[in-house]
Amino acid sequence: MLAYTVSANSKTDYSDESSDEPSQETVRIKDVIRQTHSLSDDELITRPTISSDDVFDYRNFLDHKEGGQIEKFFRAISSNDIMERSEDWGIDRSIYTRYSRSGFFADCAWADALHHGEYLDYPEMQTFAEIRMPLVFCIIFAARASRPNEIQKGIIPLSVNLLDRYISKNRQDTRRLMLIATTVEGVDGAYSLEEVVIYNLIAAACYFISDRYNGINNTSISVLLLQWEAACRLFMRTLSAAKFIFEDRKLASRVILEFMFDIYATIDYKLTVPFPSFMVQNLIVASKDLPYSQNPSAHNIYQLLAFILTRIAVVDDCFHRFPSSIIALSTYALLRKLAINDKVIRDNSKTWLVVDEQNVQVEQCMKLLAKTLVQYVDTDVLDALTQPVNVMNRRQDLFAFIFDEVHSIDIHQIAPVAMTIYNLLEEPNQQQG
C-alpha cells in the first residue's frame, strides 16, 4: 500500500507565452499522455479530472481504477506556481517543483533500496547496540569540530548510514571484523583490541569516508583522528578507544584505513544516499502552502522541526524498522498537522502530496517520532543512553549537542512544540476511546 497520494490541484499551463508554437517539452508530455490514455488535444486541456479544484479531488496516481492519473502526475510535478510566487533571491526555484516533486519518488526508491533494516536484534549485536548511540554522538562532535565554518549537513547522516549498513552486513559474523583489525601489523602483538574499540575504529572509518566524500575541502587523516580522539573522551563507553588512539595514533590510523577499504567493498561503493532530512526540506518548499524561509541560510519553525525529527531518526535505533521514505513522509505529515493546528494552513486542499496517515507504518512512525521528541526534551533518556563523562546540566546540553550544527536550539522553546505535536496524535485516540 502506498503511503501518499498526488493531488490534482497543481495546474500547469501548456501554452507558451512567448510563442504560439508549443515547446518540445510540451509536445513530448502531450504525446506521452495521449498515447497512455488515447486523448485528443481538446481533452488534454479541458478534461475535468485535470482542472478540478475540488478539495477531495486527489488520488493515488498509480491507481488505475479511474482515468486521468498520469495527467495529474505531470501537472503536479511540472507546476511553476511556487517559482512564480517566490521572492527574487537570485535563485532558480524551479528546482523546488521539478526536482522536489518528480525526484522525491526516485529518492524514496533509492534510499529504501539501501535500507539496512533492524539488525541490532541479533545476539551478536549486543555489544554494538550498547555503544551505537555514543558512537553517533562522537560522529556529530567530530564533524562539527573539524569543519566549524562549513554549512555542510551531509557528513553526519552519511557517516551513520555507512556505519549501520556496514555493521548490518557483518551482523552474523562479527569475528570477521576482529580478523580485519588483527591483520594490521602491530595489533595482534603489542595490543589486544577490545570489541568496543574495534567498533569505535569502524565508526571513525565511516566518518572519515563521509568527510572526504561530502566535505568542501580535503582534511588530513591526522587532523580528523585528533578530533575523533577528543570526541571519544566525552563518553564513558568510548574512553578505551580514546586511550588506544592516544597511545599509538599511527597504528590507529592503519587500522582505520584497513576498515575504510573493507567498507567500500562491502557496500559496493554505493555512497550516494538520499536522506530524509533533505527529502523533507524539499517537500516543504514544494508543498505550495506550508510556509518556509525565502532565505536559504535561514529556517522557520517547520523547517527547524523537520531537521530535529529527522536527526532523531538518525540517532535513535528505534527507527531502524522504518525505511527512509516512511520517515520522510511521517515527518512531513507531522509538520502539516502542526501547521493546521497553528492555523497557518487550513487543510490539505492546496498541497500536491497528501500523506496517507492510515498507513500502518506511517501511523507508527508518526507516533514514535512525537513520543521520542518529548522524551529527548523532557527526560534524561539521552544521558542514560550515551553516559557522558560530564553530567552537569546534561539534559539541555545533550539535546543541543545533537542539533547545534543545524540551528541554535533553545530547549525551552522546543518543549511546548513537542508536547503540542504529541497531543495532536493522542487526541484522536482519546476520542475513539
Specify the overall morphology.
globular
Number of strand segments: 3
Distance between the termini: 27 Å
Helix content: 55-70%
Give the helices and strands as they follow along the chain. EHHHEHHHHHHHHHHHHHHEHHHH
How many structural units, i.e. domains?
Answer: 3
- β-strand amount: under 5%
What is the typical, i.e. mean, pLDDT?
Answer: 77
**Tally of helical segments:** 21
| Poorly predicted tracts of residues | 8-20, 42-67, 82-95
Region (Disordered): 1-26
Biased composition (Polar residues): 1-12
What does this structure look like?
With about 425 residues, the protein is mostly helical. It contains 21 helices and 3 strands. α7 (about 125-145) packs antiparallel against α8 (about 155-170), α15 (about 275-285) crosses α17 (about 325-340) and α17 (about 325-340) crosses α18. The radius of gyration is 24 Å and the shape is globular. It starts with a strand and ends with a helix.
